[in-house]
Each structure stands twice: as C-alpha cells, then as structure tokens.
Amino acid sequence: MKTEILFISDLHLSIDKPELTRRFIDFLTQRAPKAAKVYILGDLFDAWVGDDDWTPPTRHIRQQLKQLIQSGTEIYLQTGNRDFLLGERFCRETGVQLLGDYAVLNLNDVATLLTHGDLLCTDDIAYQQFRIKARSLAWQQSILSKPLSLRLLAARWYRLRSYWHKRNKTSDIMDVNQETVAQIMLTHRVQRLIHGHTHRPAVHDFILDGKPAQRFVLAQWHPKQIEILSWTAQGYQLEALT
C-alpha cells in the first residue's frame, strides 16, 4: 500500500520551456506513481488563460495527469499567482482535486497548512491589491469572455510586465512577512506550514505560541535542478531528482 506524500510547486510550465515539461512528464510517469498523493502548491503553469486552452504543452500534461490518477495516485492542486484562472473544467477532465487558498491536512499527527505563498507576502502592497481584483468573479468573467488568441497575447504581455516590476522591488518586499505567517498559522491552528511562491527553498524552525513550529518553502523547478518534498511515516526528505 502506497503511503508516501509528495509536495511540489512553481514549475512554471510553458511552451517555451520544453525541457522543463519533459522533466515534469518524467516525474508523472516515473517518480509520482510510487506515491499515494501528490500536492502541487501553485504555479504549475507559467500562465493559464482558461480551461479552454489546449495549446502545447497543456494537452500532453492533462493526459499524463489523468493517467497518473487512474493508476491510483491522488493529485491535489492549489492555484498560484500565475495560474489562478485554472478551474473546475480542468479538474473534471484530469481528475485533479482543486484546493482553496488554504488547506489543512494531518501529516504524521501534526496539523499542516498548505498554501501557494503569495498571500503571505503582505509587504508587497501593489501585488496584494491586484490579487484582490484578479480573484473577483467579475474580473475573471471579463477576462475569460475574450477570444483565446487575445488571452494568450495578454498573458505574454503580463509575464513581461511582471518581470520588469520585480526588478524594481527589493527582495524583502517579495518575501513572506513573518508576522503574517504567525497570524495565519494561529488562525488555522497549525504548527507546520508548507508553501512555495518565493523561490527561496528552506526549512525554517521557529517558536509559535510558545511551541516549536516549522515553515517549509518549496523550490522552484529548473530543468537541471529539481527538488521535491517527500513525506513518509518516518518523516520528511528533500529529494533532488536526477
């Protein structure tokens, strides 16, 4: 019986990253089948313009996700700041189970909070204001009503705009706010947090409400440097995929 649980995030898959897509397909066909569950904590895609987008490499990825689930591995997905338009149709077609912004699971008898991580970066006020607008139903309906070709062009423009905006921000602004981390963990009554988004992989030990707590930051995927978080009854392991 499979019991291992895997956590990944920030793959940023796109048509112009074929080697990264190949590595993800290898993960789905070789490593992931050994696990009972796989949690993808946001930004699986570098941009997602709607569930009606079947341009490469989305078709192949959908097929492989569905095959993995049919083989007996459950897949759970949180959306990130790049693929938040991913919706129920994608999940129906693949079998992936969509999670909300926050999800709590029991991991070796420790309540563990999962989130993408962007909600923790509260010092980035401009982004948080955009996030509120972009998560509104009216904004999303307006975007999704546009022709697919126009949405694909807009996504390319947004990625370029995002790149230049990041160059003008300090690294501290784009990192998590520790007070926000503590507040969110206390609200959800957890002593462990797993997230991505910041691209600063680490394991942080700290004290929360007088008790030991941990924050796991997942790594961004690169074609030659892929790290996953594996959890078994014996504990966790940061595993580099070759």
Give a description of the structure.
- This protein is of the alpha/beta class and 242 residues long.
- 34% of the residues lie in helices and 24% in strands.
- The chain is built from 7 helices and 11 strands.
- The strands form 2 sheets. The chain has a 6-stranded mixed sheet, with helices on one face.
- A hairpin with a 2-residue loop joins strand 10 (226-232) and strand 11.
- The mean pLDDT is 95.
The CATH C-level name is Alpha Beta
Query: Tally the helices: what do you get?
Result: 7
Order of helices and strands: EHEHEHEEEHHHHEEEEE
The count of strands amounts to 11
Q: What is the count of structural domains?
A: 1
Radius of gyration: 18 Å
Corresponding CATH architecture:
4-Layer Sandwich
Helix content: 25-40%
* Strand percentage: 15-25%
Major β-sheet strand ordering:
4-3-2-1-10-11
Q: Quick one: overall form?
A: globular
In the CATH hierarchy, the third-tier topology is known as: Purple Acid Phosphatase, chain A, domain 2
Average of the residue pLDDT scores: 95
Distance between the ends: 25 Å
How would you summarize this macromolecular structure in one to three sentences?
The protein has one domain: Metallo-dependent phosphatases (Purple Acid Phosphatase, chain A, domain 2, 4-Layer Sandwich), CATH 3.60.21.10. Helix 2 links the parallel strand 2 (37-41) and strand 3 (74-78).
Topology:
Layout lengths: L4 E4 L9 H14 L5 E5 L16 H13 L3 E5 L9 H7 L2 E2 L4 E5 L2 E6 L9 H10 L2 H8 L3 H20 L10 H11 L3 E4 L6 E7 L2 E7 L8 E7 L2 E7 L1
Helix pairs in contact: 1-2
